[in-house]
Structures are given as C-alpha cells and as structure tokens.
Amino acid sequence: MPSFLVFGDSFLVRQRVAALEAEHGADALLDANRHRMQGGQLAPPELLGVCQAIPFMDPLRLVVVEGLLATAESRSGGGSGRGRGRRGGNSAVDNWQALADAIPQMPDTTLLLLSDGPLSANNSLLRLLRPVCTVEEHTPPRGEQLARWIKETAEAKGAAASPAAIRSMADLVGGDLWTLDQELEKLSLYAAGREIGEADVRLMVSQVREASIFEAVDAMIDGRPEAALRLLAQLRDDGREPLYIIAMVERQLRLLALARDSMDRRLPPEELKRALGTSSDFVVRKTTDQARRHSRQDIAWRYDRLLEADLAIKQGRLDPDLALELLVGESAPRR
After folding, report:
1. pLDDT tens for residues 32-71?
2. Of all helices (H) and strands (E), which one includes residue 171?
3. What are the C-alpha distances in Å from 234 to residues 167, 180, 229, 330?
4. Are 99 and 48 spatial neighbours (Cβ–Cβ below 8 Å)?
5. How far separated are the first and last CA of the chain, in Å rounded?
6. Which whole-number Å values give the CA distances from 107 to 50, 55, 61, in the listed order?
7. How far apart are CA 159 and CA 172, in angstroms?
8. CATH number of 4-138: 3.40.50.300, 3.30.420.40, 3.60.10.10, 3.90.1150.10?
9. Are 286 and 180 in contact, with CB atoms under 8 Å apart?
10. Does domain 143-232 fall into CATH 1.10.8.60?
11. Which CATH class is domain 240-330?
C-alpha cells in the first residue's frame, strides 16, 4: 500500500487526508488501528514500531503523522524559502533515514499519511521522502480558481451563489478557505434553497468584516501590498480607524512571535495554545502556518516598522491613511 505525503494549504491538506482515509476504508477501523501522531514529538523508533505492526481484526492500520517535515525547517523560517531547511537539515535526514528505508518494506496493511503545512522546496525531509512516497502539494486557489472553488463549495452544500456574491466573498474574505467554508455553510442555511446573492453576503457583515480585517493583516505581514491596500480601502470605507487596524497588525505580529518561539522550542500543541492564549484549533493552525513563513528577525523588523508608524500617527507627523500606506509598502518582501 502506498504511503502519502500531503502538504500545503491547511484546509486542503485536511480535506485530502480525510478523502484518502475514506478511499481506503480507514474511517471504519477500530480505534486500536487508528493512530494520529505529532511529528514534533515523535521519535523514529516509535513511528516505525507502529507502522510495522499488523492490524488487529481489521484489514489495515492507519497512521497519520502531522507536522513531521516542518521540523526540518522550523528553526530557519523566512518568507522567501532561501536557506530554509538547512539548519538542522542534516540531522533531520540522519534521524529519519530509517523511515525512508522502511517505507518500501512496510506491510501492505499499513496506510501511512504524512501531512504538513507549506514547505520550502529544499526541505531536507521532503527530498528524503519524495522517492518513497506519493507526494501531493495543495496550494491555495487564487483569482479565477478561488471563484471556482467558492462556487463549487457552495454547490456541495446544496446552494448556488450568484457571480456578484462570489466576487464579494472573494474580495472580503480572500483566500482563507477555513473562513470561506464556514461562511458558505451559514449562507447556504440562510438562503434555504434559493440562490445566494450579494445582499445575503452583506447581511453576514459582522463575520465578513472580521474576516477581511484578518485577511488585510495577513496580506500586510506576508508582503502582498496590492491585496493589502485593496482590503485596507474596504476597511476604511467600513469605518475602521487606522489605529484600530495597526492594533490588529500588532496583535497578529505578537501571536506570530509567540508561535515562532514555541515552534522553535517544539512545544506540544496544548502548550502552544496556552502560549497563544486561545483554545481554538483554527487560530493555532492559521498562526503556525503563517509563522513558518517568517523568521524571528523578519517578525522583529516588521514590529519595528509598525511601532514607527504608530508613533508617527500619534505625534501628528503623518496622516493616518498615509502612514498605513507607507507601512504596507515597507512590508513588501525585502531584497
């Protein structure tokens, strides 16, 4: 039975892993034959022992490992991917060479699913395991692909959405598939069989406004100035004050710094939740996905720029809207 390595957008990865489990009948297994393990807390002998075991009264044993490959690049961070996966890369390969050697020899009754968030192309474990796994990368949809995803997701929930409603959802929520899926679920229930229109999306304004705030913050931090400026203009039109937006950016940078530190120290998920001050798996997943794209130095640099903009506004040296625009420009990828 093939082993799968699925990585990329966290929503699409979770969806694909569930589909693979269903395709192989793993959703009907006894609990004794279902294993979900965290890669950051896992030792090779422990994983190999589980994978080599014959299932008990079932045709297969399911082994899902989350975040294993991220351990090969979690200490280097950085948005561009240059140099990621190098520090500690050789030790990661040394530690997990036994897994690469064992996968082709595993019992046919073992279904091994390795799932991860976005990974750099030079991730040492990705290079190590690619020859012995079926590798799938799932990138988030953009532009027309995102519009098609919204349309198809609405249809899967038994609803139809007008082109204007689809555009509105894409503009306000952006590429956050978790939020889009939740909002489409609410809209499909609200529409109750009729076509979802733009007015229906506007009725969800409290949820969508918050989603657009987080999308704008993400665009600023991830160095996507065009998207950030468009979303900031929408927020300003909705009455959001520049100092409020800056406070939201500060909050997200603080969470990223905490997540980056927790990931570097390889804290277990429950401790990471406590560090971030949340019980939400969604917040933890979203924050850690973003933290993997930024180094400590990058987060600190962005924090300094944010403080300068905040001070310039409060001292009256810069118009608030201009300060925001300059902050977005400075948040673009550095050469």
Report:
1. 999 998 887 788 999 999 999 999 999 999 999 988 998 8
2. helix 163-173
3. 14, 18, 9, 20
4. yes
5. 45
6. 11, 10, 10
7. 20
8. 3.40.50.300
9. no
10. yes
11. mainly alpha
Question: pLDDT, tens digit, for every residue of 87-125?
Answer: 445 677 888 999 999 999 999 999 999 999 888 888 999
**Residue in 34, 86, 42, 94 with CA at minimum distance from that of residue 266:** 42
Which amino acid appears at position 44 of this protein?
Answer: P
Asked if 20 and 131 touch (Cβ cutoff 8 Å), the reply is: no
Domain segments of the chain: what residues?
Answer: 4-138, 143-232, 240-330
Q: Which residue in 238, 239, 214 sits closest to 228, CA to CA?
A: 214
Strands (DSSP E) contained in 60-173 are: 61-66, 110-116, 134-138
Beta-sheet strand order (sheet of 4-8): 34-38, 61-66, 110-116, 4-8, 134-138
Angle in degrees, CA 75, 36, 279, rounded to 5: 70
The tokens describing 92, both together, are 């990661």
Alpha-carbon distance values, 292 to 81, 114, 288 (Å): 10, 18, 6
pTM of the model: 0.60
